[in-house]
TrEMBL record:
UniProt entry tagged with the keyword rRNA-binding: no
Top-rank lineage group of the source organism: Eukaryota
Active site per the UniProt annotation: C94 (glycyl thioester intermediate)
InterPro entries given in the database record: UBA, UBA-like_sf, UBC, UBQ-conjugating_AS, UBQ-conjugating_enzyme/RWD
Gene Ontology molecular function: any one: transferase activity
Protein name from the UniProt record: Ubiquitin conjugating enzyme E2 25kD
Protein keywords: ATP-binding, Nucleotide-binding, Transferase, Ubl conjugation pathway
Species of provenance: Echinococcus multilocularis
Ranges of residues in domain UBA: 161-201
PROSITE patterns, alphabetized: UBA, UBC_1, UBC_2
UBC core domain location: 6-156
Length: 201
């Protein structure tokens, strides 16, 4: 992808400003080129404090359109995450600034800060993942356990959930794969019989 000179110059300027930024020390946000194309970037954010994601590091894919900054980048999580506004299967994000509320004055840094803020303030009434949103609204304790577990397993989060791992192991002993077992238990509030029944269907 060649990219327009306007988009390329803007991205170079933003990356330089991010490197120079002193306020980035308190809340480290990383953006770097994935390959030799500056139009394909990787972003890294840290889970906000006082959330199930605290201390975990999440990687995002950032694809810059040739019309940047007039149209928003295409962004998705590469690190699996359990959140109402982010698909647990694909990493696609439901956030207004990535759609119709984008403005050319915004930057990649402000975009990542907005995604980080979304981790602290989910919007379950406008979900990307209906299963996660339902759990968030109906069983907040199960949601917090699941979100911490996923952050620990997939994003090196500090909050281990040994009970969850034991239940995953139990389903694996029944012949189900680790990923299928974890997904089923997550969606069924860590109820082994319900998760097993879901997997058998």
């Amino acid at each position: 992808m060649a990219g327009s000179s306007l988009a390329i110059n803007r991205i170079k300027k933003e990356l330089l400003e991010l490197q120079k930024s002193t306020d980035n020390a308190d809340n480290p946000i990383e953006i770097y080129a994935e390959s030799d194309s500056i139009m394909k970037l990787r972003g890294v954010i840290v889970g906000p404090p006082d959330t199930p994601y605290a201390g975990a590091k999440f990687m995002l894919e950032i694809i810059i359109p040739e019309t940047y900054p007039f149209l928003p980048p295409k962004v998705k999580f590469l690190t699996k995450i359990w959140h109402p506004n982010i698909s647990s299967a694909t990493g696609v994000i439901c956030l207004d600034i990535l759609k119709d509320q984008w403005a050319a004055a915004m930057s990649l840094r402000t975009m990542l800060l907005s995604i980080q803020a979304l981790l602290a303030s989910p919007e379950p009434d406008d979900p990307q993942d209906a299963v996660v949103a339902k759990q968030f609204k109906s069983n907040r304790n199960a949601f917090n356990i699941t979100a911490k577990h996923w952050a620990s397993i997939y994003a090196n989060g500090p909050s281990r959930q040994p009970d969850c791992e034991a239940k995953v192991e139990k389903l694996m002993q029944m012949g189900f794969s680790e990923s299928d077992s974890r997904a089923a238990l997550s969606s069924k509030d860590w109820d082994i019989p319900m998760a097993a029944e879901f997997l058998i269907k």
